[in-house]
Amino acid sequence: MNRTVHAVRFPVIQLHTTGATMRVSQEVFEKAKDQLKLLKEDPGNEVKLKLYALFKQATEGPCSSPKPGMLDFVKKAKWDAWSSLGSLSKDNARQKYVDLVSSLVSSESSSQVKDTTPDSKHGYETLQVTTTDNITKIMLNRPEKKNAITTQMYREIIQALEEAAKDDSVITVITGNGDYYCSGNDLNNFTNIPAGGIEKMAKDGAVLLENFVKHFIDFPKPLIAVVNGPAVGISVTLLGLFDIVYATDRATFHTPFSELGQSPEGCSSYMFPKIMGLSKANEMLLFNKKLTAGEAYAQGLVTEVFPDWTFEKEVWIRLKAYANLPKNSLALSKQLIRGVEKEKLHAVNCQECELLRERWLSDECMNAIMSFFGKKSKL
Ligand SMILES: CCCCCCC/C=C/C(=O)SCCNC(=O)CCNC(=O)[C@H](O)C(C)(C)COP(=O)(O)OP(=O)(O)OC[C@H]1O[C@@H](n2cnc3c(N)ncnc32)[C@H](O)[C@@H]1OP(=O)(O)O
Fold first, then answer.
1. pLDDT over 50 (residue 191)
2. How far apart are CA 322 and CA 332, in angstroms?
3. Hey, which of 91, 165, 279, 370 has its CA 20 to 30 A from 37?
């Protein structure tokens, strides 16, 4: 598309200028302007004229320049579009501009999603795993349960990470399907008591968890979290083991371990204080403080936050560019950055799982889980 709306060549349509609108910030307006540049498809002259007019109205107010001559088609079309906005306020024009860009972006991303969705790899029931454009995407796929992680899903994620480590992809992404990124451990994991009793359940759980986290510590390629919505429990604690974390502004980050009678895992007892400092880590890990995406960014847990309406598009454009970088260079640099901490992280993982094994046998933990299923206490 011709990115500047000033290059419009054809006459113009009547524009609607009325209707109640909300105030949009300069920042949102600037973002919309940037988004427009990312559109791949030309939206057509009519829309470009609308955008031009709204932009001028939003930044300069009503058109006061003299009407161009009849033969100066381009200037006349633009002038007509701008003056047709009459006395529309700058705020309203900004809102309409943002809304129009937003609708263009969403319609383009939905058509792209339809066109480019590759076949999911076979053998996964709880995940959708695809490799395209040098990116292996592991999508948690239990949207109706907010992507809560069952024991089967832990195993499938381990398998998907093992395969991604070996495949041709350059980077690996984990994201969630639906409105949640992940609601953490599936609390049903603790309700199916096996023949060996509750001790066996806790022991097996700790072994599985340690192996699961180990795969994140040892993952050899850049690992990126695309946090598409709220994240709870283990899906948050693991973020310290990712190399980049992109989040929608709709995401929240909640580790309600003490409410659940449990304790931190995913190496967060070590990584969170390192990332955000001890007192902020304590607020999250001891006192269940739920962070907004903006707060998580301020604490360094999240790399960048994107408006929800452009999240998928912006993030995937960025990731596709990253995935064109030289594969070995990225993997070796990651090893260099992470290598020094690996031994420490394995030791932390082991300690965290040991403590959790004990916690799962506690009344505090059992009562909290029963309470969830009794629908007495939602987080
Ligand atoms: C075997 C290895 C074990 C390793 C364990 C490692 C340690 C990990 C610790 C953690 O991750 S602790 C955190 C655990 N997660 C939670 O406590 C979250 C519990 N869920 C909620 O509080 C809420 O569901 C929600 C996430 C805040 C969403 O609330 P909302 O009202 O929007 O939706 P719901 O109607 O509650 O959910 C829809 C549907 O999904 C089920 N569900 C959601 N999360 C979980 C979960 N974590 N475990 C089991 N089921 C979950 C929920 O029950 C609903 O099901 P239905 O009622 O529709 O059948």
1. yes
2. 15
3. 91
